Amino acid sequence: MLSARGLRKSFGDTEVLRGIDLTLHRGEVLVLIGPSGSGKTTVLRALNGLETPDAGTITVDGGPELDFAPAERPRPRAQKQQRLALRDRSAMVFQHHNLFPHLTVLQNVIEGPWRVQRQPRAEVVAEALALLDRVGLADKADARPHQLSGGQQQRVGIVRALALKPDLLLFDEPTSALDPELVGEVLLVIKELADEGWTMAVVTHELSFAREVADHVLFLDGGVVVEEGPPAEIFRAPRHERTQRFLTRIL
Ligand code: ADP
């Protein structure tokens, strides 16, 4: 459903992505692991259109190929359209939930589908309430974010992403800002979504979760995919010395 080829990105003099290839099939969970600074977040942001790569291509669902370094110089407007095309297909859950503090939980969830996507409000509210119920937060619809625990806030963040009905869910270290005892409840929701067949890409340091939920694992280091494969291979028998070193350090 999504394929990226040769993604490159520099910030100033630092080349953060140095030719990333990845393929994501419908219903598949792709997990990105790797040391801090290896480029994982930048990959997700490129897939979501938050970041424009300097080079490479992204194709979604057999649609037109987005070429980020075409022979002819792209106009800013065309670039923006490319990014918006990606943005429409996916929804991102961030490390910090980024909920609007002055809005209630329900208002936070409906903001995107109602105000941005302009769907009818009554429908959006009904769907939002059903989604909140699914993650055990039906009774928090009228609460403000600060009245919730970190794990509850992050579950609202996930519901907010689901409410956009994306084809692709992107998770950027969704539990790394949480107290350890709150991590499990958020991972459980993500696992349930994976079991339901959502297509997702997840950046995480929770390796036992990664092993359980991933269909395919990419290990990034220094802006390249050093090793990839099914979790059983990557975690049990990593071939590359860099992968081995990373896994022994973190496990
Ligand atoms: P990871 O998610 O693997 O920790 P990132 O993709 O967040 O890695 O970052 C890769 C590198 O790019 C880091 O060195 C980071 O400091 C740098 N970087 C990321 N975003 C920016 C930015 N907007 N401006 C400058 N440097 C950035």
From TrEMBL:
It comes from the Bacteria. Residues 2-247 form the ABC transporter domain. Keywords: ATP-binding, Cell membrane, Membrane, Nucleotide-binding, Transport. SMART domains: AAA. SUPFAM superfamilies: P-loop containing nucleoside triphosphate hydrolases (SSF52540). The keyword Nucleotide-binding applies. It is a peripheral membrane protein. GO terms for molecular function: ATP binding. PANTHER family: AMINO ACID IMPORT ATP-BINDING PROTEIN (PTHR43166), L-CYSTINE IMPORT ATP-BINDING PROTEIN TCYN (PTHR43166:SF35). This is Amino acid ABC transporter ATP-binding protein.
